[in-house]
Structure formats: C-alpha cells, structure tokens
Amino acid sequence: MNYNATETLLRAVADNRLPHGILLYGADADALREACLAIVAQLLDTSIGSAPSHPDFHTLSPSNKSRRISIDETRHLIHQIQQTPRAGARKVAVIHDADRLMHDSAHAFLKTLEEPPADCTIFLLTSKPARLLDTIRSRCLLFHIQPGEPKPDDLAWTEWKADLDAWLEELTKAQKIDRARAANLIFSAYGLATRFGEVLGNCAAAKWAERKAALSPEIEDEQKLAIESGIRKDISARFYADMAGQLRENCARRPSAASVHALHLSLAGLERSAGLQEVNLKEESAIEYTLLQWLRVWSAARARE
Length: 305
Fold this sequence. Notes:
Helix content is 60%, strand content 8%. The chain has helices spanning 3-14, 29-43, 71-81, 103-114, 134-137, 155-171, 179-214, 221-252, 257-278, 283-304; strands spanning 21-25, 57-60, 91-95, 120-126, 141-144. It is elongated. α3 (71-81) links the parallel β2 and β3 (91-95). Strands 2-3-4-1-5 form a 5-stranded parallel β-sheet, sandwiched between helices.
C-alpha cells in the first residue's frame, strides 16, 4: 500500500477535513485502486472487500471498445450521487481512467465538482493527469500513488528490466559508439522489443483472467472488452514508467551535459512511443522505435563529446 498518500488521506477522513474532490494518479492502476478503496472503506465505515458492493459507492469507467466515458454515463453518475445516501451518512463516487472522459462529459462533470453534492466525496483515478481539463485538476486535491510491489506474475518483467539495464549500461558508456557496438546494440534492441510484447501479453492475460472471474455475470460483452483493453493499457503504462525510471537512474551514474541532453530527448521519444500505442500500434513496434531512437540519440551525444 502507498502509505504516504493513503495515510495522509485516512488522517484527513478521521479529522473530517477530506475535500470533495481527490485526484489519485500514477502508472500502476492496481495501486491506484488499492489506495482508493482503503479510503472509501473508511469513509463508508465498511471493509475494503465490502466497499465495492456498498449501496452508497458509485463508480464510472470506460465501457465500450473505444474506452471513452460518454455524456450519458456521466449524467447517470451525477444523478446517483445527488440522491440521499441509502445506508449511511456519506456517498462516494470513483471515476476510473478519468482521462477517458469525453469533452462534453468532462464539462458536465466539472459543474458537479464546482458544486458538489452534500456529504459526497469524488475520486478521480488516472495514469495521465495532464489529459484532464485544467479546471478539473484545479478543483481536486492531487496525490501521486507509487507503483506497488512486484507480484509473482511480474517476474518476467523483472527479468526483462534487468536485460534492459544491461543494454542501457552499454548504450550510455562514456565512449563513442562504433560500428561493432552499434550492431550489437541494434541486435539486442530487436530482442528486447520482441520480448516486451510477450511479457506484456502474458501479464495482461493473467490479470484479465483474475479480474474476469470476479465480474458480475450480468456485465455486457462490450464492457468486458473495455476492461480487458484497459488492463493491457494500464500494465503498459506501468512498464513505460519503469523504463523511464531505469533510464534516469542509469544516466545519474554518469552525469554530464551531453547525458542530460540525451536523457531529455530519450524521455521525449518514450512519450511518443506511448502515444503510438494509444492509436493501437503494436507494443513490439513501439518499443523497437523507442530503443532505436535512444541509440541514435546517445550515438550523437557521444560523437559530440
């Protein structure tokens, strides 16, 4: 559990000073849900396991293949939280993947944040807070949630990161990248890219099987597709965040003006790669693009030194 953020919010609940709007953001969707449920359970005076079925707990998440939250779904949530609590004195609303609110949905919800219903706490969860309207972010208290501890099904990812770190170690050496080193780095990059897709697919399949078993039998197929797609994108976002962290740590071991510049360009390339996945480019192709772009950037940096 993310004790810093969660404990701060739990103390705010105990002191009755929790704001109406809270934005939890981070790359690990499971960690976001875990932190949110811990606070919701205390707000509704129930257990974490029972919170999702509490009559005063309302949620909204992408529910179609495009993974967008429509205006009709948003209005339905707004209507729900404007009602009198059914089982206690408080109501809670949670919007998962809040960055997927459509333009009109976001503006409709903004009015609710500006004039929130009495005794209602609203949580927005997202891995991409910059995609939310500035006016929505400004009306929420923001908390960054760190990724959780690796789970057993993440072991393949841990091994992949170890191989990436070895590749980065070779890439960022303080010496020019000659043809032989470049050929070796390119060959290794293709291997890393291929394995990335395999590891991501296996992790997403395991997580989907776990989530699917807990779903209500009444849930529609379109919503199942949205959840399955969301799981894959959430895991991918966490993997990308891990890669960015590894690159920063690696560069910190060899600080120089050229390295700082190369780091900036490399992180920008990683962000572009993440954007390519938003338009459904295959994960292997996106990572291949990233690693080869890193190779070009660092080759240029070392040539200038």
